[in-house]
Amino acid sequence: MARYRGPVEKLERRFGVSLALKGERRLAGKSALDKRPYAPGQHGARRGKISECGLQLREKQKAKFMYGVSEKQFRRLFAEAARKEGNTGVLLIQLLEQRLDNVVYRMGFATTRRFARQLVTHGHILVNGRRVDIPSFRVEAGAKIEVAEKSKNNPQISRAIDLTAQTGIVAWVDVEKDKRYGIFTRKPEREEVVIPVEERFIVELYSK
Fold first, then answer.
1. Nearest-angstrom CA–CA distance, 187 and 68
2. Which segments constitute the Small ribosomal subunit protein uS4 N-terminal domain (predicted)?
3. Do 74 and 17 have their domain in common?
C-alpha cells in the first residue's frame, strides 16, 4: 500500500487526535480537529464501539500516517524490531524516530514530517557533511544533521524554527538554530516520545 496522500486533516478527525500533520494551523489552534472534533461524514459525531481487532488496526494506521510511512516500510520496521532483544513496541517507535525526515522535524527545521520529507528529498539536508536525499535514512547517535548552505535562509525553514520555538525541542537532540544544525544525541526513551499511539496494540496485531 502506498503512502497516504489525501486530505490530512480528515485523518485527524477520523482518529480524534492530532497526528501533527498540520504545522501552523495546529500550533495556532485552527486545525479542522480543533474546529470539528468528530469524525467526518454525515454520522461522524456518533462514534460506535470499536472491536479489539479494529483498535489494533487503528493504532497501526495512526503510527503509519503520523510518521508518513507505507505499509511495506512499516512491516519491515516491525520485523526488524521483533528480531531485536527488548520490547518490540518500544523498539519500533525508536526505529521510526530515527528516520531522517522525522529527525529533521524533531529538530524544528520543519513544522510537519511531510515538509521535512520534502526538505530531504529535494537535497536541503546534510548528514555528517554529506547530502542525503532518502527520508527513511537511519540516523545514529552522534550524527550531525544540517541544513545545506544554499538553503539556510529558506523562509519556510526560518518560519518553522520560529514556530517550533513555541513548543520546544525534544530532549534527544541538541540544536543550534542560528547555525541551522543539530546533533542526534541518542535514541529516545519511550516515555519521552509523546505521540497518541499505543504500540502494544500494533504488536498484538502483527503477532496473530
1. 19
2. 3-97
3. yes
